[in-house]
Amino acid sequence: MKDKVRRGGRNHAKTDAVSPTGGKDAVGIKQLEDTSFPVKIQGAGVEPFDLQVHGFWLVQDAVMTLLLKDEVCPRSNLSLALAGTTLDPLAELQSLKGLKPGAIIRLVEEPYTARSARHHLARVVELLRAPGPQDALREGRSPSILETLTHTPTPDSPNGKSLKRSLSNTKTETSSQNGAPPEFLLPGSLDRPLMGLLPHSSQHDAPSYLKDLSLSCWNPIPGHRKLQGDFLYITVVTMEGRRCDITSCPKGFFINRSTEELFDPRPSQSSPVCHCLTDLLCQISSAFKQALTTLKNRSQLPSVEVMPTPYHTLSWLGPPCASRTHKNTFSRLGMDDQLETQAPDWNEELQAARDLPQGSLEERLRRDKTLLQVNSAFTRAVAQGAETVVDGFVEPANGNPEDPAFLWGGLFISQGAASTMFGGERGRRAAQRLELQGVQAYSELEGLQGLHTLPTAIVDYRGVRLSAQGLAPGLEGSDRDQATAPAERGLLYGVNAGPQESPQRKGLLELLAVSAKHLSLQRYVVVTSNNYKVPLFTSVDAQGLLGADGRYYILDVFRTFPADANFCPDVEREGQTVTEDEESNKKSEEGEEEKGCVKKGWPENYHSDSGLPKSFPHGLCRLRPELVQAFKEHKHCQFTQHVRELLEENGGFEECAIASDSRSTNAVRAACKEVGSVSNIIFEMRFNPSVFSPVSFPPGDSKSTKLQERLLREAAAFIVTHQIPAFVEYCLDSNEAPMDGASLKQALHQRGISLRYLGHVMTAISQSEHKERLRHIMRVVIGDIFTRSTRRVFNNFLQGVDVPSLSAAVSHFLCCLLVPHFTPSPVGEETKKKSRRRGRGPGAGAAESSPWSTLTGAELWTLLCQEAAETYNISDSLGSGPNHLVEHYGLQKLSLLREFCIKTGVQLRLRDYILDNQNKAPIGPDDVLNIFPVVKHNEMPTVDASKAHRAAESFIKKGLLDQAHEKLKEATYLFGRVCDDLNPESCFCHTLLAKVAFMQGKAAEARSVQLKAVVISERVLGFDHPNTIQQYALLAVYVFAGGETALAQKCLLRARLLMLTVHGEDHPYIATVDSCLGLVLTADQRGQFLKNALRLNTSFFGSSHLHTALSEHLVAHWMCSKGDYRSAMTHEKEALAAFTSIFGEDHAQTRISKELLCTITKQAVKVERSLRQAGADCTEQAVEYLSSKSDTVLEQMVLVTGIRSITHRDGLQEYWKKHKELKAAVAKELGFIVTNGVVTLIANGEEKSSDPNTGSGKEAEDGGSPAVENASDSQQEQPEEESSEKSAAMTNGHVVEPAVESQQGEKADVEGGESDRASDAEVNIVNGGSEVSDAGQETESSAPNEVNGNIVNGEVKSNATADEIKSESNGVNGEINGACDITVKHSVHKSNGTWADVVSKANGAADTAVNGTAGSVTANGEAEG
Prior knowledge:
This protein is of the alpha+beta class.
């Protein structure tokens, strides 16, 4: 991949580490990077080379880095020596005496052990195996496809062939020879080929190293040879046909005298002892030596593409060929899946990592990395253990067939008991999921190191959900602790703990009290069956214990979060009855009913409007933590509003605040009581997790219980009345609305909406007046309901399938699911086909009699509808078959197939599936390649990296892009140190860094960072994840800015291909991609994409929306380039009407549209006049075209993709008017001169311009130093006629050909400050959306140097050189492109410029100041509408 810059990644061998500045730990990070220095590596048979090391490294870190170097690999079992002294592996390099830059460090070959010899053999095998995309697919991992797009032809290509690979094979080529996109990617095409999604085996075959490499038949080692040091015997057959037996010993490897018939372990006379096996193989085979040299000289991929991801990201598509294409030469070595001789203690490893010191930044980074490594290994072990258990290789440890438990690899694996109280099987699955959420919540508590949870994960495999945990301490070896009191080594906390008084219990209660505050849990008391009152800080099920390791643990936290009152009506009524019996009721029943809604907390007519509360299939419906937080913020707003109203009623806010009476205190108390605060003196919201549970509370707590019931009802109603409408409103205005089930889940969970509310989301969309504009959201919601219901039916379906029939059963289920009225073939006929095709296999007899083989499409659809109605309360929405979803909602069967495979772990063979063929099964048994376990695990925090990321977002909101850029570089450096950048948040951080760099005119850096973001997204989130689609679109902008038009086209076509597969063409983001394609393509298809984008934007946003206006403008430009001025005039009139409606007459964008319309009109008149004068025969010569400049195309792409977007602010003109009046009055009083809104003062004989509201970055913060103003509107004074003449020459960056551009001799000073004709525009960095700030706010701006230049229709042409501008602007903090205003919230845009007002030059001169404007940047990944 070109120009890939690893900014501060984990690869310590890289020397281009970032130097972040600013922030709390900036000094520490700077010091860490300043300790970098080079050393010289020698010895161990390698050529001397230099290595860049860091002083904070341990010696073992340097060894691990060396083992990854091509010069050293595959050598192992090495140590380092300095000046003849072997270095301690745990010593820091900076603490070593004599280690300085340029020092010589020698590699020392250490003797092998039996274990290290096998490890070395495994490293050799790993090196010789040729890696490729097919390997990732075969293992079920999501590959990175970007490399296949960025490859360029090289002269060394074998047979003269190009290394450039397309997105597909010859059938589905994404770009033909003439640059036109293929037909299946054109607008309106219904073809959805899958062959273009993943790379194929068109890559050159790996060279053959050996004919065979296997364990010798003379293993195991005889006793007398074991005593002489033999570890292993290996048989090698070289490419020349020579057969050798090799012995592994402590000194290395040598050839022995054994043959196939004779065992003679003595060394061969001509064989040396080589420490590395490859050295020995090179001596006995010249072909091996040549192939190994070729392997080591190959181009190296960046580490982000080759490093293993911490967690498995499933690829639902596998290789096109299920079988291996070549023999695995190394499979008989037995190095692949060697189990550890001793099962790891996962709990001890995790707790030891958590107990690591956190005093310095380096210590915290090591702790975070260790935690991630342990959790990653634990998750992999869970997946392997689940496969082993479900496949039947492990016997239950408890002998209980109803609830079997298994011990495997240091894991305790179980299904959990199916309790009827929680809802049977559905309740068991919910309890496992909630237990994982509870463990995550307690693990994330900052500053609470003394409370521990067990490592936990859940895994779904072959229809079974298993819960896996590390073994709790004290389960084994507890006999030695019999002398210890039970309270000190046993259960200390919980309903069943009993009365205890001990220092250990007191310490645990203190920890639980702190955790309850962080989790907003109320302390409460329950009454046990023996009338014992137990105070609790957690749910009633939780237990706290002191382990044998001396640590406090909390278990059974699945009911940590408060209950969802919308789905627990039975328990609610039971609780009400108990409470009414205990308290004295002094009111009549009629009075209770009249005040019932207010007392209970339900809104008026809530049940009739929403149908809630209602029962649910399981009894473990809990509120999400995001909802709890959002509800607390909502109640706090109510609290402040109540306090303000009460103070206004009692004499006003200021008077009550100044007075020393009790009015303020009384107002706060009344507001606390009104909103339900648990305290009557401060606002504090806490929730009882056991309310609406079958527990008994003391009679004296009935008031508190009633209050908690009210709060939980209000919180439950808050979901339906506030959060769901807010989600619908977000989808209305965003072109990055959810595309599939994963993005829908993320968007709902961010607002605290659980997926059991999908039916209510459907209802909200159906009742919306804009439901036609929300059809894409309805499509995603109904698709998710369908696939989730299908998964539950599929889980039950698989329980009756034996292992030999799994492939046939899965393919049969998919055919019944996707093919209308699918009926299986008769048993006898199917058996005959099988016998003719491959004979009677072991599963043939089972298939004839298995119940799964009789399932029909109608029966399956009936089960799905019942499941959807029971869970989501929808009726007849799924219709009678899959065609109903296609016809009524526009769902694609391919999209449904993808969602089903991702959720169930099924992997299909990569080929094109025809899902509408009712005569033949579209999916056969051979198409089902595998079923992978789907693991849900805890996320380990990256504390310092996340803090730096959030700090950067804060700087961006303040408009301080220089500081934000440094913080983002710091964050990427820290992410690289902890997780090698392979983390979703790291992907978002890189995306934001690329945007900020592009805003600063650093197009090359933006391109490099965005390349990395694409790879991270593909490997961590998935090659077809919606975020990956957006990353490709952003990358297209940055590579186009660098002049790589062909690569930009490939990226956009890749994004469109993925979008069509994931969702289909009817989505707002397709309009974004099509608009960009219409700008970068050069063929006749430009118009098709632009018109399709206009159609989609009009359909989703209406004719007066900004997205639609931009599309009209783009179509008008394209019409001008074709010479069709009449159509261009029509579209530009629509754009002008929309801009006028949105921004008003005086907005810069409105003026630009007017100028373009004026130019089009003049050109149309000129063409008509030429046609009348010259006649029809001279049409070709008479028509003049408006051609687009590359800078203008880039501006338009930047706006369309949302990197910068224009927003409108109400009341802006009024604010500026008052601001200018106040400024003029102050200046007049001080005796300054005010000219065109610019304050000019005379100091030391020189005129200086200043603006008290502007400053440059830190100067503005430190006191608002005078700054040179920028982007003035000096062009405002020129006559109207002169301006119109200029607009005819150049309008919005378009040159009229062959008209001559008029030359203007006027000069204008480009100054940083407000202009007389202030613009209503604000520029934002967002992911495709827009963020509207409040009106009437102040400006935070940077003030760069003065630049003299020509202004033509708002476009500044600088007379200064780019180097001069860049050098002068280096000292100005917060500057973008040489001259800018940075605005986010308190801002006013002050420019009369072109589209984005900042042109990033495609030829690399992106640092040149053009139009001197900038904008605000929103935080990562979530577009705001």
